[in-house]
Each structure stands twice: as structure tokens, then as C-alpha cells.
Amino acid sequence: MAVAVDPLTEAFGARVVMPLDVKNASRWDDVLRRQEASAAARAPCADPAADKCFATFWAQTVAELKTLSRDGQVRRVNDLVNRMGYWSDWDVYRKADYWATPEETFEKMGGDCEDFALFKYFLLRAAGVPAEDLRMTLVASDDQAHMVALVMVDGAPVVMDCVVLRATPPAELRQYQAVYSLSETGAWFLAASRPAGVQTAMTDLAH
């Protein structure tokens, strides 16, 4: 039986080996629900300045993004989010691993790699990019787990990273090996080598 290929991750040399129900990816399912609740509860702030009020920042940024091409959206979102501070979940939330919503990351003015990737993913979704054109993807690099966002631009995938700051085609990031991929429509373990250091990250996805 042929193994399915995900067009957004095949540029990493990764084939789908195990499709998952999104609800089996508990961390992802949880942050999707919290993001939905955040959007539903969003209200104007006492100080409406965009650098202080998430509701203002989000509304203004999404409105701007909707005037841009897909390539322009990706560049703008990548540059905007990568300006924030980078620090560990333990420093910010006193947890070993926590997937923050954009509102939480905005309030802390920073986060770690999955928080940056989630911020980019949800901003692009709000700007109208369909879920099938986006992925949250765990990669392995030097035996370490790292999260990036993938987005389809002009028929080809582009990596939005917080380490390699320029939005980059996966083929140029040979240091990364795709491990699993997530979207609102599905979750997949991928056929790529999985160094020992990423096994915990894979297990944590379901907790």
C-alpha cells in the first residue's frame, strides 16, 4: 500500500507514516480550544494602544495582512513575531512545556519556539490562509526538538522559523528533519529519522 505524502512536509524528505486524529494530539487540541476561547472573549482594552492592547494589535495586524499577497503576509508575520523575546516555558510559565496562545505570548512579549510558531500560524489563519495551507511541524536538529510553522506560498512550502529568521524553503534547511506535523484538519507522524532527543517531544504531544 502506498504511503501518503503531505505536500507541505515532503520538501523535508518526509512522508506521512501515521495519520492521527487531531484529538489524539492533546497539546495541539488544547491550544486550539484555548485560542478559540481567546478569540470569543476578546474585548477592547482600557488603553487601546496597539503595543499594549492585544485586541487592538490583533485587529490592526489582521486588517493589514488582508491587504497583502500570501508572500507579503508570510514575510510580515515572520518579521513581526520574531521581534519578540525568546525564553523558555519554565522562565515564563514555570512549566517544562506549555503551548501558549498568541494572546498569552503577546502579554509576556515572548516565548519559545512553539509559541512563535503558534503565533504565526494563528495570525495567518485569521488573515484568511486556509488550514490546508498551514502546518505546525516538529523538526529535529542536532538531536534537539524544535517547532516551526510551514505555509504554502505560490504552490511551494516555506518555513517560518525563529532561528533562521528569513522565511525559507525547507530544502535549504538541511539541518532539520521533520518528525510530526499538525493542522486543524489532521495530525501526522512523519517518515524521518528520529534522534533520541526528540522522543520525549513526540510523547509529550499526547499529554
Structural topology:
Layout: E1 15-20, H1 26-41, H2 54-65, H3 70-82, E2 85-86, H4 89-93, H5 102-108, E3 110-111, H6 113-126, E4 134-141, E5 144-153, E6 156-160, E7 177-183, E8 186-191, H7 199-204
Parallel strand pairs: 2-3
Antiparallel strand pairs: 1-8, 4-5, 4-7, 5-6, 7-8
3D structure, described in words:
It is a single chain. The chain has 207 residues and is an alpha+beta fold. The chain has one domain (10-204): C8orf32 fold. Helices cover 35% and strands 22% of the residues. It has a six-stranded antiparallel β-sheet with strand order 1-8-7-4-5-6, covered by helices on one side. A two-stranded parallel sheet has the order 2-3. A hairpin with a 2-residue loop joins strand 7 (177-183) and strand 8. Helix 3 (70-82) runs antiparallel to helix 6 (113-126).
Along the chain, the helix and strand elements come as EHHHEHHEHEEEEEH
Continuous helix count:
7
Which value, in Å, is the CA radius of gyration?
Answer: 16 Å
Biggest sheet features: 6 strands, antiparallel
**Class computed from helices, strands and strand pairing:** alpha+beta
Question: Strands of the largest sheet, in order across it?
Answer: 1-8-7-4-5-6
Q: How many distinct beta strands?
A: 8
Which range does the strand content fall in? 15-25%
